[in-house]
Amino acid sequence: MADIAALVASPEAWAALLTLIVMEVVLGVDNLVFVAILSNKLPPADRGRARRLGIGLALLLRLALLSGIAFIVGLTQPVLTLPFAAPLDAKGQPVVDLAFSWRDLILLSGGLFLVWKATTEIHHAVDPAPSDDLLDKRAAGSLGFAAAIVQILALDVVFSIDSILTAVGMTEHLPIMMAAVVIAVALMLVASGPLARFIHDNPTVVMLALGFLLLIGATLIADGFGMHVPKGYIYAAMTFSGAVEALNIAARRRAARKAAPDQRKL
Fold first, then answer.
1. Rounded to an integer, what distance in angstroms lies between the CA atom of residue 218 and that of residue 236?
2. Tens digits of residue pLDDT in 10-55
3. pTM of the model
4. How far is residue 34's CA from residue 51's CA, in Å, rounded to a whole number?
5. From 148's CA, which of 35, 140, 206, 237 has a CA 20 to 30 Å away?
6. Pick from 249, 68, 62: nearest CA to 159
7. How many whole angstroms separate alpha carbon 25 and alpha carbon 22?
8. What is the DSSP letter of 78?
9. CA dist., res. 189 & res. 21, Å (int)
10. Do residues 152 and 28 lie in contact, with contact meaning Cβ atoms separated by under 8 Å?
């Protein structure tokens, strides 16, 4: 209790907490978009429950990972090295790192899954023919609901590993990290419903969000190979694309309002 009281009275601890909350929210945007897309594939009665259950279980998962923080930090040690030489750049340095840690393997798996899932959803959007997709709107039922929860948790493991490793470098106090995660996930839970409804009501946003998932998946794969892409570039591209789409939505709504009086006259 004395340690907690000391942290509450420390301005540095509050600064670290606010920084970590912002970081968790920013990193959680990717996960939130994925949750919104998955939940919208379920029947309307199950969507809210899937979002709440998925995000709630994700919170418990992140807290459990934080409790084993020493194990998470150890995931950066190489456990697999490919038995051939990596290509070299003009300076004679390896282009990719062929010594993989558990963190790298998790990022690679998550990136490949995101690329596969986004590509599959884009295919269904462009060619909406009947399929055996577990999360297809026509395939309603407990299996689809369970598949959505499993996929939400699987992706949360990937994003949790990355955010926790970053948090370890920002503060050594476990209570601060846990508080930041709880607050950030609570904000995600509040925002999940409005975001899912917005994506559902604006079909063009779905394609944009799927494009974001492809970009994030490719970034995770590159990170798994040791080619770190600054997150600022990714979020700047996403923000610019989102701003352009917002202008398109506003233009379409304005055109619809102008067309409404003309239709009433007819």
1. 16
2. 777 777 778 777 767 766 777 777 788 788 878 888 888 888 888 8
3. 0.63
4. 10
5. 237
6. 62
7. 5
8. E
9. 14
10. no
